[in-house]
Amino acid sequence: MVNKFSRIGFILAAAGSAVGLGNIWKFPYIAGEYGGGAFVLIYLVAILFIGLTVFLAEAVIGQNGQANVSTSFVVISKSKNPNWKLAGFMVATGLIVLSFYSVVLGWILNYVITSFDTLPTKAEIAGAKFENLISNDIGSLLIYHTLIAGSVVFIVLKGIKEGIEKINLILMPLLGLILIGLLIYAFTLDSFSQAVSFMFIPDFSKIDGNALLAALGQAFFTLSLGVGTILTYSASLPKKTNFVKSSFYVAAVDTTIAIVAGLIIFSFLFEAGAPSSAGPGLVFISLPVIFSGWGILGHIIAVSFFVALVFAGITSAVSMIEPALRFFIEIFKITRAKATIICGSTFYILGIVALLSMSKTYADELTFFGKNAFDIMDFMTSSVMMPIAAILTCVFLGYFVDKKLLEEKFLAHCSSSVFNTWYFLIRFVVPIAIVILLLNKLGAI
Ligand code: TRP
Questions:
Q1: Local structure of residue 20 (DSSP, 8 states)
Q2: Of 156, 199, 271, 284, whose CA is between 20 and 30 Å from 149?
Q3: Which residues of the chain fall below pLDDT 70?
Q4: Which pTM was predicted?
């Protein structure tokens, strides 16, 4: 089959999936809320021991299953019990995440366009602009959501090699260039050293159980785990490719970009004397006001910054739909075009529900149990379905797959101490950590 990644293609595509709004938007604001350095340290530990462990788990299942999530689980299980097909439920998660991710990418695309000519000069104006966009301007929201959804569909229609690999080969280097440019600019500001201290000097006073769980949740989200994305991409990885090394590279690129984004954003914030704990509005409200004070340069930086976010987000978005596409193509034996129409319209419509649920006009109809549809989709996926899928993946590999098989696959590429550590983590540490995360999200602890 020609439709396979090259090794570099896989690394770029998996890194493209991993690097997204999670790195540039979410990571800095969570790190800001939990006081910086100490949170960053905990996050690094979570990536290395928990995130990477599950990443390797999905990679080994995918690379050896060479099929969609359901089939891969059955193929590599000890018993070949067809019930393992049920693991395929996780491909639905990607579609739901994509529906609201596309809406948020739409907001950002709107910011790319508007940042060319106007930037808000005060926090109140910036806040009102953002509020107006998400709660009143349904027309714009629909247009931008449609543009994003259309691009995603257009790319994935072309398949792994010509669609996904190609777009990553183009957008990832461009994203890297923009971030390097922004980092260089941040470096010239007096506040850069303050940003470095904020990110790297740990202050444990703001760390509590919630910070630990936030770091853990973020490690999962940023590595695109628990929806079969990494598994499905790995299923297009030639069987001989070193999946261990490739996984390390992806985690390293992802972590580096999160840290670089943090340094850039905190330098900008501190330069303007703005607080580091502005929450989700940080990128949409605090930053544009700062950019507005920098004249024409501010417009250039604003546009570059939001373009970087769009690039990062598009390469993630295509990775959210791919598990469902491969599932539909192989299980229902339909063409890629048909699968794309089915999955594309599903997430597009769900996205419309999500965006309407935040508008003033439809909020009442689309609010259930005190949460609007957007928040429900976010909660159900990030807090419930993704952790459950991750627990299932760990328990599956730890107890229902032949250890000899795993050992053989790992030892072809790494030392036995790496394998033994991974095997111990996947059997005991990671499932317990995620069960705690899940119970906490469900309000049980
Ligand atoms: N990792 C991406 C980010 O940080 C988001 C993402 C892409 C994702 N694919 C995913 C999240 C699959 C969950 C599941 O923005």
A1: S
A2: 284
A3: 1-2
A4: 0.96
